[in-house]
Amino acid sequence: GKATISNNGATILKLLDVVHPAAKTLVDIAKSQDAEVGDGTTSVTLLAAEFLKQVKPYVEEGLHPQIIIQAFRTATQLAVNKIKEIAVTVKKEDKVEQRKLLEKCAMIALSSKLISQQKAFFAKMVVDAVMMLDDLLQLKMIGIKKVQGGALEESQVVAGVAFKTFSYAGFEMQPKKYNNPMIALLNVELELKAEKDNAEIRVHTVEDYQAIVDAEWNILYDKIERIHHSGAKVVLSKLPIGDVATQYFADRDMFCAGREDLKRTMMACGGSIQTSVNALSSDVLGRCQIFEETQIGGERYNFFTGCPKAKTCTIIFHGGAEQFMEETERSLHNAIMIVRRAIKNNSVVAGGEAIEMELSKYLRTCCFLIPRKQQLLIGAYAKALEIIPGQLCDNAGFDATNILNKLRARHAQGGMWYGVDINNEDIADNFEAFVWEPAMVRINALTAASEAACLIVSVDETIKNPRSTVDAPPA
Fold first, then answer.
1. Rounded to whole angstroms, how far apart are CA atoms 345 and 361?
2. pLDDT tens-digit profile of 93-149?
3. pLDDT digits (tens, 9 = 90+) for 374-390
4. Structural domains of the chain, ranges and CATH numbers in brackets
5. Using CA atoms, how far apart are residues 144 and 316, in angstroms rounded to an integer?
6. What Pfam families does the record point to (predicted)?
7. pLDDT confidence of 174, banded at 50, 70, 90?
């Protein structure tokens, strides 16, 4: 099997061969957290498991599942309202302040990853990339390309579409640069077609055979001549571009490439993907300000910059081992998702698990105001929230009991933003220390974990439907 090195919760859970239905539910909430906000995948799984652990004694004592579910929904609503109440809103009008916020959020997302030593460098790069997009902030408009070799600090963001040059036979090795080129986007095969498996042509004379060969060449040359006469300088095709077409285009100072980022190029440069070369007018061709080839590491890359239709960018990062580069790509994806979410919902809370401790304190206070059995269950919910700061202390090698006691005391005195200080093995005001994260990450994690716990608690029994061992009757 393939080895994967990762500390991304969603990635690890996706790769597990999970059979148990309850465990599958936890995998699903981690996937949804990853898709929705991009971070907090481990937290959401840990929370859901701890919620279930805390209510297990009540279930064993015969408490009805509906009472547990009602209490958990009440607690979740109280917690979400509290987050919205205390979250700090950053004004979008102040661009400098907003950028600082986004960089801090990206750094928090990267601080637990393999590239944590370069988190300031990559946080700036991720914010640059997201800021280059238009208001819709479409994730697919950011491309991530890996270059093997070189230092991480040589990574860069390109304002446009970039992809690796692939050299064909007949390909001109001279680097090209065009100003205001027209771009043909095709779904057309530009090579001599191989015969089909079941095709058969019977010829009786050499002239007949020559006529077939000539017709094949004429069809191919007709296609590439039409492309040349359309005025396109760059030809991109989903289907293969053969040696003959490559040589033909190279002789006429045109560039061609196959099967690369066609959709993103179309969205950025305009035009439309054509399935025929018969109607290649200027209306269906894309445009950009500059197309050029540049050497990056041992590879040559093509860049489309100054795209008129949609703002797009490409992050090109360097690395060593393949697994390291894959994990770096996942880390950058997480940071990009967090920055997008922070722009769309411009409210933040302190990181370092300060918000969990504040919610735990708040729910413990609230539970005494709620009569009946729900009081105990909301108290259990509040206790479960402390698993995340406790786990953070364990991961950092701290004494979790000591740190949690300090945090409880500080929050009881009104230190709302106090959380774990990883650098000094103590607690600190993480808002003052600029350890911030989007409030939406925590809201989403609490809601998803609570719903998953309620779903599992509400299951009365599981019925396994074995596959039938009886052969189907003959038709």
1. 25
2. 778 888 888 888 888 888 888 888 888 999 999 999 888 887 777 888 888 888 888
3. 889 999 999 999 999 99
4. 9-89+349-458 (1.10.560.10), 95-159+315-345 (3.30.260.10), 161-309 (3.50.7.10)
5. 6
6. Cpn60_TCP1 (PF00118)
7. low
